[in-house]
C-alpha cells in the first residue's frame, strides 16, 4: 500500500523487488502520479429572513484528505445571486453577509453559491437557498373630523412604507370599512383616501370608528382604525301663520323642522307673546291659540327639542 499527503501532481516511482529462497531476485517499477482531492464542507444560511434585510451564509465542517491542506487552511468565494460571478473572492472568512439589496422582495428565495478552495487550487462548490419572507406595509390613518352630523368625512392612509423597494415601487391598494362591521365598503382601491358617506355620520354627538387596510403586491397587509367625532346640529325651525286674527277667534300656527341628523323632535315650546307659553309634545304640523283681546300686536317665538337637546 502506498499513501502520500501532498506533492500533488509530482510523480513517484515505486520499485518492486522479488527474491526467492535461493537469493535470486527480479525488480520492476511503476510511476505513480498523486491526484488532488478537493476539500469538502457544508454551506448553510441563517434564513428565513425578512425582505430587504441581510443574511449570512457560512461554511462549516471543512475537511480535506491532505493534512497539509488542512494545516494551510482554506479560502472561500461567494456568488450571492448565483449568476456565475463571485462577489467575494478568495477570502479567508468562512462566513459572508448577503446584501439586503439581493433579498429585497419576498415571499421568495435567493440561491447563493459558495466555493471552498485549498492551497493547491482544488475546490468544491455548494449551493444554499435563503428563504425571504414578505413584510407587511405600514401607514398612518387619519380623518377630517370632527364633523357635523349628517355630513361626510374623509379618511386617509398616509406615510406609506414597505421594507421592500419592489413593493414600494409597485404601489399599494387600500380598503375601507366605514362601520367596522368586518366588511370593506371600498375594496382594493388605488386611492389612499375615501369619503365616508353622511349616512354613516347621521347622528351626533357620537363617534364613528372606521377601519382601513393597506396591502402590498404580495398580499401582505396591515389594518388600522380611526375614530371620527360627530357633533350634534340643531334642527332648523320654521313657523308660519296669518298676519292677523279676530279677537276670540282660533289662530293656527304651522310648525316644521328639519335636522341634518337622524334626530326626532320630541316637543315644541311656543311663546304666544301674550304671556302664554305652551309646551306641545311630539312634532305636530300645527298648533292653535286664541287671543282673547285686541287690538294688540304679538310676536310669536318657538323652540323645539330633540333627543340631543333644545
Report on the architecture of this protein:
The chain is mainly beta and 310 residues long. The protein folds into 3 domains: 40-133, Immunoglobulins (Immunoglobulin-like, Sandwich); 138-230, Immunoglobulin-like (Sandwich), CATH 2.60.40.10; 236-306, Sandwich (Immunoglobulin-like), CATH 2.60.40. The protein has 2 helices and 24 strands. The longest helix has 6 residues, at 67-72. The mean pLDDT is 92.
Give the number of DSSP strands: 24
Which regions contain 5 or more consecutive residues with pLDDT less than 50?
Answer: none
Proportion of residues in β-strands: over 45%
Provide the CATH superfamily of the largest domain.
Answer: Immunoglobulins
User: What is the global morphology?
Assistant: rod-shaped
- Largest sheet, spatial ordering of strands: 4-10-9-6-7
Count of folded domains: 3
Question: What's the helical proportion of residues?
Answer: under 10%
User: Which second-level CATH architecture of the largest domain applies?
Assistant: Sandwich
What is the string of helix and strand elements?
EEEEEHEEEEEEEEHEEEEEEEEEEE
User: How many individual helices?
Assistant: 2
Note the gap between the termini. Answer: 112 Å
Compute the gyration radius: what is it? 45 Å
Mean pLDDT: 92
Q: CATH first level of the largest domain: which class?
A: Mainly Beta
Helix-and-strand structural type: mainly beta
State the CATH topology of the largest domain. Answer: Immunoglobulin-like
Name the quaternary structure.
single chain
Question: Biggest sheet, in brief?
Answer: 5 strands, mixed
